[in-house]
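Anyone else keep sequences and structure tokens together like this?

Example one:
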Amino acid sequence: MAPEYPIPASGRIILIGAGPGSPDLLTVRATKAIAAADIVVHDGLVDPRVLGLASPDAERISVAKKRARHTLPQDGINALLIERARGGATVVRLKGGDPFIFGRGGEEVDAARSAGVAVEVIPGVSAALGCAAEARLPLTHRDWSSAVSFVAGQCKGLSEQDWSGLAGKGRTLVIYMGVATAADIAEKLMSDGVAPDMPVAVLERGTLEGARAIRTLLADLGAMVAQENVKSPAIIVVGEVVMLSDAQDKLTRWANVAEAMA
């Protein structure tokens, strides 16, 4: 028997964070809502096992997005969600990570509100939290970092962004969607004052089969990503807390740096 979830008399949209990948990181509330869905509109990175939690009778619609290529533009996704909800359906919008962290969930909520459609948001474990936990990488630590920031690395005008103060001693910076621009990101951070020998970790396919956690120094980030053939999905973590992780070292001088910072 499917878990119970309250079904309204009219249609609605439920934005759900599917987490970084592994289905056992879904919240109980999310699992119940997926099972109650009439329609599941999902991102390409949502694990098939998560989609399998929906009823066999539920319609599944992929709106996968890749760099410079979208199955359906955001306006089209908004229109699809609203149209189906107005028809009386419970429409689940499954998004990787958390809907409100680089997931454009805010835009979908605004569109639903403007259209007079009921909308609910169920949070998910973000990629930063899930992948860092798997690598035993604390994003904050009393001795090493009292602040953490999140930025999108796949943004227009990277050189014009003001990232000064986001990374450095006592701070952690988490960069989403930064694999393709890793070398430029490293140059950007160093030009903004971050030391070239600041530890950096790349967490690839976190919580999924084939996951890797590898680390180097900021100056070598671009070369390491290319040499290791790192692919998305992956996040980049910049900060001294990287030293505490289980990430695999990809730099011959790492031991000297770690010893100097101990």
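And example two:
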Amino acid sequence: MKVKCIFLFIVCLAYTSLSFASNWDEILKLIKNGNETEAIAIVNQYIQKYPNDPELIFLRGATLDHFGKTREAKENFLILCNKYPKDPIIKNNLGVLYAKLGEYRKARVFFELALKLKTDYKEAKNNLSLIQMQDRVYLTSK
């Protein structure tokens, strides 16, 4: 099953602080070239300078997930979810991460929470329907 995620690094640029934006091209290049260690190190350097910057925490989570470190990415999004409980984007992305980890019940909860906050949230609706479809397939195969 493949859920759709809105981890678009271009979208992250809109969220990042101006002081960080100057190194954006460098980080994108590192990510594109698969330089995981360097990309994460640079993001972590910024987080050391600005530890409470939600955009940087979002970017770190997205970067970690991009490089297959989904469990670590999930921890970043849990931090954001606790700080910003009314943000449907964070909840949807947490749902995506749980789905990637095979934790479909938790994924469903976060997709539903995202939809409670924003009833017309297309990505969360699509992701929830994929989870529901998987549940139906599982139940009919028993």
